[in-house]
C-alpha cells in the first residue's frame, strides 16, 4: 500500500492535464479515442452523452458525498478497496488489468480520486483520461510518453507502507 505524504499533496491539487469548464468542450474531442474515466460524475456524463468510457473507475461518491451510483452492468467488474490519500496494491493492479481490457469498471470501496496516477501509467498511448476537478470542471489527460513519465514521477511521491500500518492508519 502506498500513502501520499502531506508534503506532496499540493502536487495533486493542480490538474494533471487540461482543465475544461464545460463537459461539452471535452465531448467534441473524444471521437475515435479510447476514453477512461475516473469519478462517478464524469462517468455519468459520458453515459448520458451516449459515449460510454472504455474503462471507468468509480466509488459511489462525489466530493465525499454519496452519489446515486453509476452502473454499467455489461462491463467486466473489478471490486477493490482503497482509502483516501492512498493507493492499494489491488487498485494499482486493477488499473493495469483494466487498461488492457476495455469494457471494465473498477468499483472502489473507499476513494478513487488518486486512481488517475496508476491508470495513466498503464493506459495505452493516445488514450484520453477524464476526471473531475471539484468545483472547477473536467480534466482531460491525453496519454503521451511525457504524461506517462509524469505519472511515474507522481507515483514516486507516494510512500510505501506495510499492510498492517495501512490497516491502522486507514482502518481497512
TrEMBL record:
Q: Which GO terms describe its biological process?
A: coenzyme A biosynthetic process
A single GO molecular function term of this UniProt record = kinase activity
Q: Which InterPro entries has this protein been placed in?
A: GTP-dep_dephospho-CoA_kin (IPR007164)
Which Enzyme Commission number(s) are listed?
A: 2.7.1.237
Enumerate the residues binding GTP: 40-42, 59, 112
Task: Tell me the pathway.
Answer: Cofactor biosynthesis; coenzyme A biosynthesis
Q: Would I find Repeat among this entry's keywords?
A: no
| Catalytic activity reported | 3'-dephospho-CoA + GTP = GDP + CoA + H(+)
Keyword field contains GTP-binding = yes
Keywords annotated in UniProt: Coenzyme A biosynthesis, GTP-binding, Kinase, Nucleotide-binding, Transferase
Query: Which stretches are annotated as coiled coil?
Result: none
Question: Which domain of life does the UniProt lineage start with?
Answer: Archaea
PANTHER family assigned to the protein according to its UniProt record, in alphabetical order: GTP-DEPENDENT DEPHOSPHO-COA KINASE, UPF0218 PROTEIN TK1697
User: What does the function comment of this entry state?
Assistant: Catalyzes the GTP-dependent phosphorylation of the 3'-hydroxyl group of dephosphocoenzyme A to form coenzyme A (CoA).
HAMAP family for this protein: Dephospho_CoA_kinase_GTP_dep
Q: Which family does it belong to?
A: Belongs to the GTP-dependent DPCK family.
Name of the protein in its database record: GTP-dependent dephospho-CoA kinase
Query: Which source organism does the UniProt entry give?
Result: Methanospirillum hungatei
Amino acid at each position: 500500500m502506498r500513502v501520499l505524504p502531506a508534503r506532496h499533496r499540493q502536487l495533486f491539487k493542480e490538474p494533471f492535464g487540461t482543465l475544461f469548464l464545460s463537459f461539452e468542450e471535452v465531448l467534441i474531442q473524444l471521437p475515435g479515442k479510447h476514453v477512461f474515466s475516473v469519478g462517478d460524475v464524469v462517468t455519468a456524463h459520458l453515459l448520458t452523452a451516449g459515449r460510454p468510457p472504455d474503462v471507468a473507475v468509480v466509488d459511489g461518491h462525489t466530493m465525499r458525498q454519496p452519489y446515486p451510483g453509476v452502473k454499467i452492468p455489461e462491463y467486466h467488474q473489478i471490486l477493490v478497496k482503497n482509502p483516501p490519500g492512498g493507493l492499494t496494491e489491488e487498485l494499482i493492479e486493477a488499473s493495469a488489468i483494466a487498461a488492457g481490457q476495455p469494457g471494465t469498471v473498477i468499483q472502489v470501496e473507499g476513494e478513487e480520486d488518486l486512481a488517475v496516477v496508476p491508470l495513466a501509467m498503464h493506459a495505452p498511448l493516445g488514450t484520453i483520461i477524464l476526471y473531475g476537478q471539484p468545483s472547477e470542471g473536467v480534466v482531460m489527460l491525453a496519454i503521451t510518453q511525457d504524461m506517462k513519465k509524469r505519472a511515474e514521477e507522481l507515483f514516486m511521491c507516494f510512500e510505501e507502507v506495510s499492510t498492517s500500518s495501512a490497516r491502522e492508519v486507514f482502518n481497512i
